[in-house]
Amino acid sequence: MANTQGPEGNYDPAGSTQMFRAFVDEGPQGRQQPQAPAPAGPRLGLVVGIVVAVVVVAAVAWLALK
Fold first, then answer.
1. Residue 3: partners with Cβ closer than 8 Å, 6 or more residues away
2. Per-residue pLDDT reduced to its tens digit, 3-29
3. Do 10 and 18 contact (CB within 8 A), yes or no?
4. pLDDT, tens only, 27-54
5. How far from the centroid of its chain's Cα atoms is residue 6's Cα?
6. DSSP one-letter string for 1-62
7. Interatomic CA distance for residues 64 and 56, integer angstroms
8. What is the pTM (predicted TM-score) of this model?
């Protein structure tokens, strides 16, 4: 077998570590990660929660005054 690693001194007999490092260092090429939506999710949940609370309070008040 020929030693194709060169004189760097980072020889890995299996080569998997070096291939993994090359893959990680290269990063996503040509592909972009899908961006997370704006923080509207928690804000939307807060608005829905407030609306539900107002409806419940209104229903209790309506039943109390009936």
1. 11
2. 565 556 666 566 677 777 777 777 665
3. yes
4. 665 555 566 655 666 788 888 999 999 9
5. 39
6. ----S-TTS---SS-HHHHHHHHHHH---S--PPPPPPTHHHHHHHHHHHHHHHHHHHHHHH
7. 12
8. 0.39
